[in-house]
Amino acid sequence: MSTTAIALTTRPDGVPDGTAAADLQEVDLAGLRVHAAMATAADVDRALGRQRRDLTDFAALLSDAAGARLEEMAALARQTTLRRFGRTMHLFAPLYLSNECVSVCTYCGFSAGNDIARRTLTPDEVAAEGTALVERGFRHLLLVAGEHARIVSKGYLRDCVAALAPVVPQVSLEVQVWDTDTYRDLVAAGADGLVVYQETYDRDTYAGVHRLGKKRNYDWRLAAPDRGAEAGMRRLGIGALFGLHDDWPADALAVAAHARALLRRWWRAEVTVSLPRLRPCAGVPAPPGTLDDRHFVQVLCALRLLLPDVGLVLSTREAPEFRDAVIPLGVTHLSAGSHTEPGGYTGPSDAEPQFSVADERSPAEVAAALRSAGYDPVWKDWQRS
Amino acid sequence: MPTGPMSPQDPLVIAGRAFSSRLLLGTGKFPSSAVMGAAARAAGSEIVTVALRRVDLDAGEDDDILAALDTDEILILTNTSGAVDADEAVRLARLARAAGLPDWIKLEVTPDPRYLLPDPVETLKAAEQLVAEGFVVLPYINADPVLAKRLEEAGCATVMPLGSWIGSNQGLRARAGIEIIVEQAMVPVVVDAGIGAPSHAAEAMELGADAVLVNTAIGTAADPVAMAAAFRLAVVAGRAGYRAGLPASRTDAAASSPLTGFLDDPAPASVSAAQP
Question: Which CATH architecture has domain B7-249?
């Protein structure tokens, strides 16, 4: 009698060697955090004066001493962005595939515990949403979904990507994390961007906000951008959701260190960093440790000064006036006309949105605002060949 | 179309076609297509590069970028920016041709999105394939003289060594390599990338480059149209200086004939042939 071994897809503990995730574990984030607290005016001088900055400089730029020189930081950040990116602003739209979710995450409207109207689009409906977005001018779509491996399965995601690939040149994914082979399938179907926010890099806070579900596995999530890069994703988006952890400089340092590690390990990839801040959504009280506007600007400028080549992404969580004001300081990628409920672009949807959008301007309005600020809205920045 | 005093007698010839302007313009980073179009006119450029990744091929001539350029006066040079390997660059070039754009391709194979430095291996591979398919190939390279000769042998219409990396505005940091390329090339040499000021453009022309390509310095200037006009003047001035014959510069003061001046000396101190 022959037996066949059952291949179990268990996730290894820890992070594999040779990944940005592993490199990140080697960074002395605690030491850098101290430096951010203690940096002097001289440290800030040095950080501002250098051409190529390191994490120590970044820590100095997060300090109160640097905060006192915000205007100077902003001017430098603006200049750096201008030289590298010109006066262009890349626009994309999030396309919500499904708000089904089996995970319990305290900060999200889709959390499994919330009693909300759930909807999952069929691939045909996804194509219709995509076409509606293309008609509004978009050429880059970010597919977003809750975590439900049975409903929002690998096959479903592949079908959605395949349905959109003929319609739009750039498709990115912000969905539950997968293994390398699944990412390869998704790349083959036409996706080339992967967005995975670690949400918070503090393990204790992470455990506290992820109560149930696969998202609880911190290391598996942390190494997802590495798996995506290995699978052929050209664009890697990372970010921290400020407001989850009560110490914003710690998460700012970690996301900066993670970005640098990804740039070194995956030198062919374009890396973007996003700075979402918590906004109200169903069933969530006001968050502790919020990132206020002034410190948001400081983090944005510091990131630009540390990482001159990295895209910085601003979402519609931010109000229009604030978005318009921070755009010149280093932002390069904007979402616009966002609906965070599945089906929201092709008609009114009774599905629950993930968060309430603060900037409700249409893409055309956002583009007009950009133009009057002297920016050229770029919709298309890729050509499938 | 603005031309300098020397240009009618001093055309830039690429792939058998004559141009009077030696300033090529890139179209990225401008605040709008309208400003870019005005800058192209102020620069007097007759060759303008456009990234295929930005062009809406379905829109055709109505595409924002193409509509801003007078395609009767200007040759659109499609670039393959974003291509990470030869296959991708070749496919993009074919797409450009299929869309009705000119067969002239600025070959950019830049797998590193940070410095956007060109991959020499993939560039050579793509160049060979594209030349075989009948494209006019203008490859962007690091200032590597051996690579320049290999690309020339492969049939490229020009070589385009960088001054410094794209967007850095640092001028001719790669000057040493550019000088050798200029000396050895049998196709036009276009210094492309890193030209941050009109003086850099003039310097490149004085070195003997046949043309320069400028993008960031014009697109991100406070007044792109005025900057384009300034670059036009610099390119004309640099070329005129080169043709007028720049004197060699010396680092030390020297007599005009230090080694052989004694032969002209009327009262030689040494032994003469007449002595027994």
Answer: Alpha-Beta Barrel (3.20)
Identify the active-site residue in B29, B106, B125, B149. Answer: B106
Question: Which residue is closest to B52 within chain A, CA to CA?
Answer: A383
CATH of the domain spanning A87-378: 3.20.20.70
Reported ipTM: the value is: 0.75
Cβ neighbours of B88 in A, within 8 Å = 385
CA distance B250 to chain A (A): 33
The model's pTM is 0.85
Residue B253, pLDDT score? 60
Question: A301: number of CA atoms within 13 Å, CB side?
Answer: 29
Nearest chain B residue to A269, by CA: B113
> Is B106 tagged catalytic?
yes
Report CB contact under 8 Å: A381, B95.
Answer: no
Domain residue ranges in chain A: 87-378
Out of A176-185, A296-305, B54-63, B229-238, pick the least confident.
B54-63
Condensed to tens digits (0 to 9), the pLDDT of residues A129-155 reads 999 999 999 999 999 998 888 888 999
Which residues on chain A place their C-beta less than 8 Å from a C-beta of chain B? Answer: 82-88, 139, 234, 263, 267-270, 309, 371, 374-376, 378, 380-383, 385
